[in-house]
Design the sequence.
């Protein structure tokens, strides 16, 4: 099995998902389940901390695309933080940063809510 | 004035040189054309004390100029567009004066006292630097013109460089994007290989699409053996009904949605592009994608990517379907093997021996399970029951009915019921419990306990042959009644009896023997060949006679067996 894990933290009204490892076609559904669970619990302020994310494929990015508009429509947002350059490059190539929030630092993202 | 002090003119010249040097360094190092142009304009205006200035940038192919910078009042404003195209002679002139080219100045809308400096590299015209008259209305000196010319040359080179740099950066980015596209394809083809679950494949395909195109609306539909259904979906309000799905499958393979499709599903969900996926030239997959978050359209390269990834997903799903089919087939085969074992258990094995008789029997199914049946069992009164039957049809249905007959026979055998009455009961049960097109041809008989007599009932079965000692033409045991299962027992079955004599030979068989076909399938083996073969081997043992008949049939049919073959050979010692 590919190495990919998700841990959840709560900072006041904000839910933080710490993802680590490789987010690809195989592991995308794990992230999907976590996001779905948050939405079911009406936790719409979501930060995904990518500091330990080593690799992301298009399929991983697709999970954010599938939920980000829904969450925004419900008055929340999904903000991504602490990406390494390689991971950021994939987001950048696909045109993600101009549309959605990517922050260098988690604290900055918290302030953005 | 000391000889070491430079003259005013020299000082002036040095200052200009320094300006040139610094400016050129500044401009060459900058990769921002806007910065370069702004500096060019400000430096020249400031240096010559000109209150109005403007930079026009040529838009190749558009016959137009774009006002990149404009300072002072009365001229075109920044970002305006000027529709104009000038002859080559002007585009090659470095410095253009109003007196000589009044029409050009008029077109651009500048005072005749202004001067135009051509911004050009050795082979490209980039635009113009337009400078209005100096504040003191004095014409530009030769020296000043030279200075500005030098600056425009440096600026032009800097702009050309930065343009090239930007273009390279653009190309590089496009290249990076292509590499990423290819990586996605490659990676997914590897990932898909490891997946055997259709839903997982469809889901991975969906997420890859959403990420790659930055979309949230997506659907993926499949046509599996005529049944169309949605297998993966995102951001869709309501799934299309069967009628709309049919319509979607009839669209062109690459359909940019333009409202002429007459399909509310596409409009309600703001689907922009529908792509048909083919497998062996048959359209069995459909991918629809919505608006891209970047608001970009779907160009050739996006369509290509969608098709490639779609085909990959389709092929993988096709592969899993085939795999499932194979597993199902293997499971069925396993079950059939089990059924075969059970069926073999229903036939007497080994064939019981009866004192005073030489008996041999064989059953060869053309498939794993068959509908032929024979039996030989000892009764309580020391007599023996012998039966042979052929169920219509082949395979599993026939074998079920055969098993049913076997159990009835074994249930009835110990009871003190006559053959004719038992035949009637069996017929009624089979008739009640099976469809109208299922019959059994059935022959059974009882060898008396003293082994001298044989009572039998033939219910529509190929008549067994009785070869009396010394006779080559057999008597046929035909009497009995109608085939089992065709109609209720209205007329009772008749029972007949023969007496055994030493040397008699009885051959029971099913139609697989007489109806074996030659390889051309034009001729059947028939009774005549059977009788001939038996007579040829008449004096041999039952086993040898049977082997001879089977060999003869195999030779006739070239070992191709279409039907079950069952045979009992009984010799009276």
Sequence:
């Amino acid at each position: 099995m590919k190495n990919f894990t998700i841990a959840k933290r709560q900072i006041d009204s904000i839910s933080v998902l710490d993802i680590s490892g490789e987010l690809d076609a195989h592991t995308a559904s794990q992230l999907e389940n976590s996001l779905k669970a948050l939405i079911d619990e009406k936790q719409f302020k979501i930060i995904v901390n990518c500091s330990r994310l080593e690799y992301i494929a298009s399929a991983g990015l697709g999970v954010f695309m599938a939920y980000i508009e829904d969450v925004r429509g419900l008055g929340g947002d999904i903000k991504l933080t602490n990406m390494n350059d390689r991971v950021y490059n994939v987001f950048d190539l696909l045109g993600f940063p101009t549309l959605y929030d990517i922050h260098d630092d988690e604290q900055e993202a918290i302030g953005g809510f | 004035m000391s000889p070491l002090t430079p003259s005013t003119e020299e000082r002036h010249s040095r200052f200009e040189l320094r300006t040139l040097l610094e400016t050129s360094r500044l401009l060459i190092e900058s990769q921002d054309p806007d910065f370069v142009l702004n500096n060019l304009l400000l430096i020249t205006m400031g240096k010559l004390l000109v209150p109005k200035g403007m930079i026009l940038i040529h838009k190749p192919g558009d016959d137009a100029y774009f006002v990149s910078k404009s300072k002072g009042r009365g001229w075109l404003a920044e970002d305006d567009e000027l529709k104009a195209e000038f002859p080559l002679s002007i585009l090659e002139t470095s410095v253009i004066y109003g007196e000589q080219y009044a029409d050009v100045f008029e077109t651009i809308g500048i005072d005749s006292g202004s001067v135009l400096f051509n911004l050009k590299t050795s082979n490209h015209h980039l635009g113009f630097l337009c400078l209005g008259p100096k504040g003191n209305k004095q014409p530009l000196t030769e020296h000043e013109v030279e200075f500005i010319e030098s600056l425009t040359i440096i600026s032009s080179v800097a702009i050309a460089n930065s343009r090239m740099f930007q273009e390279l950066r653009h190309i590089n980015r496009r290249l990076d994007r292509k590499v990423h596209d290819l990586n996605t394809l490659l990676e997914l083809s590897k990932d898909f290989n490891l997946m055997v679950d259709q839903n997982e494949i469809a889901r991975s395909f969906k997420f890859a699409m959403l990420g790659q195109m930055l979309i949230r609306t997506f659907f993926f539909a499949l046509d599996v053996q005529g049944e169309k259904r949605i297998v993966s979906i995102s951001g869709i309000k309501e799934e299309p009904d069967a009628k709309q799905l049919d319509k979607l499958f009839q669209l062109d393979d690459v359909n940019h949605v333009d409202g002429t499709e007459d399909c509310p599903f596409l409009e309600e969900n703001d689907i922009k592009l529908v792509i048909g996926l083919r497998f062996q030239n048959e359209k069995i997959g459909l991918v629809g994608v919505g608006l891209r978050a970047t608001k970009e359209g779907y160009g050739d390269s996006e369509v290509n990517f969608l098709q490639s990834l779609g085909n990959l997903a389709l092929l993988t799903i096709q592969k899993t379907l085939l795999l499932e089919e194979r597993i199902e087939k293997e499971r069925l085969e396993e079950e059939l093997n089990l059924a075969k074992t059970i069926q073999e258990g229903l036939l007497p094995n080994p064939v019981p021996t009866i004192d005073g008789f030489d008996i041999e029997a064989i059953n060869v199914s053309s498939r794993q399970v068959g509908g032929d049946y024979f039996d030989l069992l000892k009764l309580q009164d020391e007599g023996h029951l012998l039966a042979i039957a052929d169920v219509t049809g082949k395979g599993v249905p026939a074998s079920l009915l055969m098993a049913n007959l076997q159990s009835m026979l074994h249930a009835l055998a110990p009871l003190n019921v006559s053959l004719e009455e038992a035949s009637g009961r069996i017929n009624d049960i089979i008739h009640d419990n099976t469809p109208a097109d299922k019959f059994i041809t059935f022959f059974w008989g009882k060898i008396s306990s003293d082994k001298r007599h044989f009572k039998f009932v033939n219910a529509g079965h190929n008549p067994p042959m009785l070869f009396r000692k010394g006779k080559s033409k057999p008597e046929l045991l035909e009497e009995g009644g109608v085939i089992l299962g065709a109609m209720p027992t209205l007329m009772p079955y008749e029972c007949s009896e023969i007496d055994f004599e030493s040397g008699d030979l009885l051959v029971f068989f099913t139609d697989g023997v007489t109806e074996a076909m030659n390889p051309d399938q034009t001729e059947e083996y028939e009774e005549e060949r059977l009788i001939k073969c038996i007579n040829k081997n008449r004096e041999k043992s039952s086993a040898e006679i049977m082997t001879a008949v089977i060999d003869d049939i195999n030779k006739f049919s070239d070992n191709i067996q279409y039907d079950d073959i069952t045979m009992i050979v009984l010799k009276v010692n």
